[in-house]
Design brief:
The protein has one helix at 7-69. By secondary structure, the protein is mainly alpha-helical. The termini are far apart. The model has no long low-confidence stretch (mean pLDDT 94).
Length: 70
């Protein structure tokens, strides 16, 4: 099988474009995963703060009810 002379430079360029595309896609995917991880951490911190506020609110209501009963 004979490969035409025009095919070799085209194949080389396509291979280079393919490698660059794979590397860019890989970096973009890593950034996306990092973003999702950061978002999940922030969400968990928010949920923890909301639970703390809920507990504080219940304590304040209990104190208020106890002071009104006395």
């Amino acid at each position: 099988m004979v490969i035409p002379d025009e095919f070799i430079p085209i194949a080389g360029m396509l291979m280079t474009v393919g490698i660059v595309g794979i590397v860019c896609w890989s970096k973009a995917r890593a950034r996306e995963l990092q973003f999702h991880q950061d978002l999940r951490i922030r969400e968990m911190e928010h949920q923890r703060k909301m639970k703390e506020l809920e507990i504080d609110l219940e304590k304040a209501k209990a104190r208020n009810a106890a002071s009104q009963a006395a």
